[in-house]
Amino acid sequence: MKMIKTLSRLIISSPKKCYYDSLTGLIYDLSFILPNLIVCSGPVTNSYFNSFFRYELNDLIKILSFNFGNQWHLFNFKGEDPGYLDSEVFGKVSHYPFPDHYPPTLKILKLAVLEIHKVIKSGRRCYFTLFEW
């Protein structure tokens, strides 16, 4: 079944090239914008149907943990319920909800950028993963 889900995701996401992680053997829809800034589509949890065309949260966590250890943080810009508990990502998430079908407010963007900048300025090594549904 995993092969069928992987194939359906690759077809849906084409012509984009998906990221293949050699450490985990997983294929995921993510892009490295900077060496420590990653953008990906919003993951799903507990949704059998959605898992055929969306990538699963557990797979994203596995990729981040294998590649970056404990030095990662998620930024969720989804306006609706994220579909998972913060504890499922070890509390390593910040929520900056964009209004559905509208551009984000400058306030939301400013707060998110300030949080990322604060970590970068502190010298702490961290990989940021940004996503929105």
UniProtKB/TrEMBL annotation:
<feature type="domain" description="Phosphatase tensin-type">
    <location>
        <begin position="19"/>
        <end position="124"/>
    </location>
</feature>
<dbReference type="InterPro" id="IPR029023">
    <property type="entry name" value="Tensin_phosphatase"/>
</dbReference>
<dbReference type="GO" id="GO:0016314">
    <property type="term" value="F:phosphatidylinositol-3,4,5-trisphosphate 3-phosphatase activity"/>
</dbReference>
<dbReference type="GO" id="GO:0005886">
    <property type="term" value="C:plasma membrane"/>
</dbReference>
<protein>
    <recommendedName>
        <fullName>Phosphatase tensin-type domain-containing protein</fullName>
    </recommendedName>
</protein>
<dbReference type="InterPro" id="IPR029021">
    <property type="entry name" value="Prot-tyrosine_phosphatase-like"/>
</dbReference>
<dbReference type="GO" id="GO:0042995">
    <property type="term" value="C:cell projection"/>
</dbReference>
<dbReference type="GO" id="GO:0005829">
    <property type="term" value="C:cytosol"/>
</dbReference>
<dbReference type="GO" id="GO:0051896">
    <property type="term" value="P:regulation of phosphatidylinositol 3-kinase/protein kinase B signal transduction"/>
</dbReference>
<dbReference type="GO" id="GO:0005634">
    <property type="term" value="C:nucleus"/>
</dbReference>
<dbReference type="GO" id="GO:0004725">
    <property type="term" value="F:protein tyrosine phosphatase activity"/>
</dbReference>
<dbReference type="GO" id="GO:0043491">
    <property type="term" value="P:phosphatidylinositol 3-kinase/protein kinase B signal transduction"/>
</dbReference>
<keyword id="KW-0378">Hydrolase</keyword>
<dbReference type="GO" id="GO:0046856">
    <property type="term" value="P:phosphatidylinositol dephosphorylation"/>
</dbReference>
<dbReference type="InterPro" id="IPR051281">
    <property type="entry name" value="Dual-spec_lipid-protein_phosph"/>
</dbReference>
